[in-house]
Amino acid sequence: MQAHGLLPKKGLALDVGAGSGRDAAWLKAQGYDVVAVEPADGFRLEGRARHSPDIRWLDDQLPSLDQVHRLGLAFDLIVLSAVWQHVVPTDRARAFRKLVTLLRAGGVMVLTLRSGPAPEDRPMFSTSSGEIEGLARTYGMEILKVHASHDLQGREGVSWTTVCLRLPDDGTSALPLIRGIVLGDEKSSTYKLGLLRAVARIAEQTPAAATPSRELDDAVDLPLGLVALTWVRLYLPLIRLGMPQAPRNSGPDGLSFAKAGFRALLADGTDASDLRVGSVFDAERGGAIAAAITETARTITAMPAHFTRFPNSEQPVFAVQRGRYGRQQGLELGVDQLRSWGTLTVPGNMWRALSRFGPWIEPMLVTEWARLIRRYADHIGFAVPAGSAEAALEWREPVRSTTTARFAAQKLVAGGPGLSCVWTARRLSEAKLDVDHCLPWSAWPCGDLWNLAPCDSRINRHEKRDRLPSAAMFAESRERIITWWHDAYLDDAALRHRFLREAAAALPVLQGEDLGDIFTAFDWRRLRLLQEQRVPEWHWSA
Most CB within 10 Å of its CB: which of 33, 54, 350, 517? Predict the structure, then answer.
C-alpha cells in the first residue's frame, strides 16, 4: 500500500468494497482489527473461507453504508481500493461525507483511483485526485499524500492514483452545537437539557433503536416513545423530591408533561429504573406509563424539540413525526411498540458525538441541570442541600440481579440436558454454577438476559472477573452461548419475548429472531465496548 508509512500503527480498520479480502487480510496481518464491507455474496463467502476468521464481514455498500453506521463504531483507518470509480458521480458527495463521519479524530482514509478503459463486467466513471481534494476541503479533511503509479498488471491505458487523507479533529460541528445548547441557549426550564440527555442515554443504552432517517440524508430516527420514556425516567426522582425544573415550580404543578399519567407514577411509587426497554406491565400500571409517555411526547414536540435551534437560525435541531399509540390491556416496552408514538429525528453528527463522547458530554449536562435547579430554587426559597441535585440526576440502573438467569440455569442443571460453562465448556453442577455478565457490569451496567450466561464459579471469580472476553474467546464460545440462549430463554414462553425485546433494543445489526445474528450483534457490541472504553481483555487457556 503506497500510503503505508502514513497509516496509524494499529486500531480499527474499515475496508470498503473488500472483494475477496486481499487488503483486509493485509490489514489484519499489520495488527488491525478489520471490518470488511462487500455487497457481493460470492466475494464475501470466498473472503470468509480464504482469510482469518477474525475479519468481520458485512453486507453493505456505498453511498449510504447504513449497516456500518448502525454499529456506532469510529474507525482509525478506512480503505477504498479500486472502489471509488464505481460510485455514481451524483452519489459521491454523499458517499464521501458518510465515510468521513465514520472516522475518529486523527483517522486516515486511503483511496486508490483507477483511470483508463472500463472493465467489461462493471460500470466505471471517471475520477481524479482533484475531485477527492475538492471533497476533502468541503468535509474538513487534510491531504497527506497523492501518488501516481502504473498498473502492476500491465494493462494498456490503465493507471492508478493513491490519495491519503486525515481527519484533523472531530470533523463536525456537533460538539460546539451540543455545548451551545447546554451552556449557551436561553432556557426557561430544564426541558432542553432533559431532551438532550434523554437522547444521550439512548445512544449509550439502546443504540440499536436508532434507524436511518426516512426524510433526511444524514440523520437517525429514534422512537418518540423511547425518548419520552427516558425523559420520564430522568424526571421522576427530581419531581418526587420537589426540585424545581422551571421558575416558580416545585413538584409536578406547572410542568406541562406532569399530568395524570406522570402523577399516577409519582403516587404509586414507581421506581425510575423499572422504566426500561424489555419491561412488561399489567393493565393498570401499563396504562399509567402509556399515558405518561403520551403526555411527555406532546410536551417534547411542542417545546424543547421546537425551540432547540441551530446557531443563528430559526431551524430546529430536532424534527418530530407524531404517531398514534393504540391502547392495550397491558404494556410491553419493546422498541417497535415505543415507535408507535412517532419518531424524533436527530442530526447524524449529533448522534455520533453523543455515541462516541457520551462519557464526557453527560457530566456537562448534569452539571448545568443541577445549576439550573439551584437557580430556580433560590427564586422560590427552596432549599437544595449540597450535592442533592446531582444525586437525584444520577442515572439509576436496575438492581444488579442475575436471579432470572440463575433460575433458568438451575432448571437445566437439575432436570434438563445439563449445562456447561460458556467459556471453558466444563460441565457445571449447582455447586460450581455462577452467572456471569459477559460484558462486565463495571464497564457497562447491563443485566439483559442476552448478557447473562452460566460460568464456572472459579473462572468467574478468579480468572475473568471484570475483564472483557477477547475476540478469540468469544468466537470459541459462540455455539455454547447460542445453545444457552436457546435452552434457557427461547424454550421458555415467558422469557422468550423478554430476551428478544432486550436484544433488539441494545444490539446493532439485528435481524429477526435468528440466534446467530444476535450473537454477531453481541460481538459487535463487545468490539464497541473495547474500542470506546479500552476495557482490559481476558484470554484464557486450559
Answer: 350
